[in-house]
């Protein structure tokens, strides 16, 4: 009679094969590591652009032109004229606001690029496939996920 396999025997790690030592596996590991570094760089770029855009919005608010209203009477008559004077042209505030808008657009582009990197990474694709196998509403291939991410990028712009 043979004994039933124990949980320890079933949970043993698989043996190292020739495929594990091949250059293809080394290339996949290197690609996964570089995609992780790219993802961190894109997130950092997005955060920095957001912070600088916030500072530019504060600068635009601080440099906006001041308006002054004067009530003037002409030559001692009873008719009064309402006159408005601006303290500056408002070009600096407009430049700050345009700069903030461009930086927010760059941050949004970096965020979408991060989504593409995260979906196209080899380890994220295998994890997504493991989750999506039993769910018919979730796309089951990495190519489909990448296509959906591209569509999301273009639809949000």
From TrEMBL:
Keyword Transmembrane listed: yes
Transmembrane regions: 39-62, 93-110
Keywords recorded for this protein, A-Z: Membrane, Transmembrane, Transmembrane helix
Superkingdom of source: Eukaryota
The protein, known as: CASP-like protein
Organism, as annotated: Panicum hallii var. hallii
């Amino acid at each position: 009679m043979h004994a039933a396999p124990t949980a320890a025997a079933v949970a043993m790690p698989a043996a190292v094969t020739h495929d594990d030592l091949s250059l293809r596996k080394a290339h996949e590991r290197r690609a996964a590591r570089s995609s992780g570094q790219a993802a961190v760089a894109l997130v950092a770029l997005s955060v920095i652009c957001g912070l600088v855009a916030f500072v530019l919005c504060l600068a635009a608010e601080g440099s906006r032109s001041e308006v002054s209203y004067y009530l003037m009477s002409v030559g001692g008559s009873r008719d009064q004229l309402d006159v408005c004077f601006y303290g500056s042209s408002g070009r600096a505030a407009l430049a700050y606001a345009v700069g903030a808008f461009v930086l927010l657009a760059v941050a949004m582009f970096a965020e979408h690029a991060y989504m593409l990197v995260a979906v196209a990474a080899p380890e994220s694709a295998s994890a997504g496939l493991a989750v999506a196998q039993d769910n018919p509403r979730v796309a089951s291939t990495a190519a489909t996920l990448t296509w959906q991410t591209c569509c999301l990028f273009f639809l949000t712009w």
